[in-house]
UniProtKB/TrEMBL annotation:
InterPro entries: Ptrans_KptA/Tpt1, RNA_2'-PTrans_C, RNA_2'-PTrans_KptA, RNA_2'-PTrans_N
Annotated source species: Gilliamella intestini
HAMAP family: KptA
NCBIfam families: PRK00819.1-1, PRK00819.1-4
Coiled-coil annotated residue ranges, if any: none
Enzyme Commission no: 2.7.1.-
Keyword annotations of the record: NAD, Transferase
Protein name per its UniProtKB record: Probable RNA 2'-phosphotransferase
Family that this chain belongs to: Belongs to the KptA/TPT1 family.
A GO molecular-function descriptor: NAD+ poly-ADP-ribosyltransferase activity
Length: 181
């Protein structure tokens, strides 16, 4: 991804997932904001955004972090929100037998004590494969991939959701459902 697309993606992540008030916008409960409002407010705060640039970020993002509404008028982050007004209603799904969580080795002692918790986000994020989880872990330091007994969790009453970008979501993962290699 070129510099401008990467910079725009990071800006959109910050605004659409964590701090919409930083540029004076409000997300609805499903995380949507009118693209024209976003453009106006972002440009008034010194960002050089265009609708075409936003569409290019959405189209070329390998992580599919953002979605544009079917009518092309609104944008939202697919998941990963920490802002409290956003409560996307995901449909509960039956997960595969195993899912994966990428983290850094420095967090392992804490995870062994308390499991995986959402922290500031609404959900724990899980990947369908080890490669994706490893890439996530690398963003936080020396990576380690944890295997999650997702289907067993589901069978014991834990809920799982699948975000539009393929990220699996759950409220938390107790240590008994984690496989540490």
């Amino acid at each position: 991804m070129n510099y401008q697309l990467n910079k725009t993606s990071k800006f959109l992540s910050y605004i659409l997932r964590h701090q919409p008030e930083a540029i004076g916008i409000t997300l609805d409960t499903e995380g949507w904001v009118d693209i024209n409002v976003l453009l106006l407010q972002a440009n008034q705060h010194g960002e050089s955004l265009t609708k075409e640039l936003i569409e290019e970020v959405v189209k070329t993002s390998d992580k599919r972090r953002f979605m544009i509404s079917e009518d092309g008028l609104k944008i939202r982050a697919a998941q990963g929100h920490s802002t409290q007004q956003v409560k996307i209603k995901y449909v509960e799904q039956v997960p595969p037998e195993f899912l994966y969580h990428g983290t850094a080795t420095r967090f392992i002692d804490s995870i062994k004590k308390q499991g995986l918790i959402a922290g500031d986000r609404h959900y724990v994020h899980l990947s369908i494969n080890e490669q994706t989880a490893n890439a996530v872990g690398k963003r936080h330091g020396k990576p380690v991939v944890l295997k999650v007994k997702a289907l067993l969790m589901h069978q014991q009453g834990f809920k799982f959701y699948l975000a539009d970008n393929g990220v699996w979501l759950t409220n938390n993962v107790h240590t008994g459902f984690l496989i540490f290699d």
